[in-house]
Each structure stands twice: as C-alpha cells, then as structure tokens.
Amino acid sequence: MAVLLLGLVIFLGTHSLRMAAPRMREGVLAQHGRAAWMVPYTLSSILGLALIVWGYGLARQAPLVLYTPPVGLRHAALLVMLPVFPLLIAAYVPSRIRATLGHPMLIATVLWGLAHLLANGGLADLFLFGGFALWAAADWASAARRPADTAPAAAPSVRNDAIAVIGGLVLYAAFLGGLHRVITGVPLL
After folding, report:
1. Which of 48, 76, 120, 161 is the most exposed place for a label (fewest CB within 10 A)?
2. Which structural domain, as residue segments, surrounds residue 15?
3. Which sequence ranges are marked TM in the entry (predicted)?
4. 107 and 22 in a common domain
C-alpha cells in the first residue's frame, strides 16, 4: 500500500501545484523558460504514475476489503462511466461541450473515480479512485476561482461536439468489448 500512496502523493501533488502554489509555475516559466517547468513536471508525473500502477498491482495481491459491492452497483458504474470518454475528448477539442463545462477532463475524472468506487470495495480502490475523484473535484473548484485564460482559443464547433461524443462512445464501447481487461487485467463485470 505504501508504494501506491507514494505514487498518489507524487502524481497528485505534482498536479496540485497550480492549486497550492499558483504563482510558482508562472515564476519558473518567466525566469527559466518552459523546459525548466515541463521537464521536472513530466518526470515526476511519470514516476508518480508508475508507482501508482505498481503499487495498485501490489495492493491487489493481498486486498483489504472494506465492502463488497452488489452486482447492481457494478452496472450503475457502467452507466456513470458513459459520459467519461466523450468528456475526455471534449477537453482536447474546441467544442461547445468544453466551452459550456469549462473543465470536462476534471468532470470526467470525478465520474471515473466515483464509478470505480461503486464497483470496487478495497482500501486500495478507495485510495486510488477516491483520491483521484477528490483531487479532480478540488481542482475543478480551484479552476472556477482562477482568472480565465486570455489566450485566443479556436471557436467551438458542432463538428467537434460530434467528434467528442461519437469518439468517446466508440472508446466506451471498446472498453466494454474487452479493452478494459486488456489494459488492466480486470473484467468489467
């Protein structure tokens, strides 16, 4: 469990710098340039993610079960996951979805975490999925308080909405069709 927790601290801590120390990023960028920020940020993110994957795998070998979800909650988790992939894609294309929601990736992360907590009842699951859901909710609230980005953005389009929704549903179908098991080793039901 210690490896998982260390990974979460490193990964989520790195991704929380904008919330915890908003001027730090701008200061490093202004004084030392983009690479001085991105290289350590990227390396710590990769390290944190690797430790999360390894630590979660270790924790699953001797799970500490907090609760056993009924089958109905596993089906509910599939329903909660339905908008996650369209929201993830909408975060990267200039869409009306992104313009309306502001931070679709954070919303997707909250839903992803909650869905997985519905379907999994171990302590490692609570730390992993609950940790990400809480972090995303906090970042979402923090982002709402930050000044809006003044950089010109591409105009949102209905075409990009369609790309986000259709592409997201195709990805969702792929996960239902077995991609989840291929990537994680865990069947959906």
Report:
1. 76
2. 1-62
3. 36-59, 71-93, 163-183
4. no
Does residue 116 sit in the same domain as residue 154?
yes
Same domain as 129, residue 41: no
Last residue in a domain, options 44, 62, 80: 62
3-state SS record for the chain: CHHHHHHHHHHHHHHCHHHHCHHHHHHHHHHHCHHHHHHHHHHHHHHHHHHHHHHHHHHHHCCCECCCCCHHHHHHHHHHHCCHHHHHHHCCCCEHHHHHHCCHHHHHHHHHHHHHHHHCCEHHHHHHHHHHHHHHHHHHHHHHHCCCCCCCCCCCEHHHHHHHHHHHHHHHHHHHHHHHHHHHCCCCC
Domain boundary among 38, 62, 86: 62
Q: How many domains does the chain have?
A: 2
Average pLDDT over the chain, rounded to an integer:
91
Beta bridge partners of 157: 95
User: How much is the pTM?
Assistant: 0.88
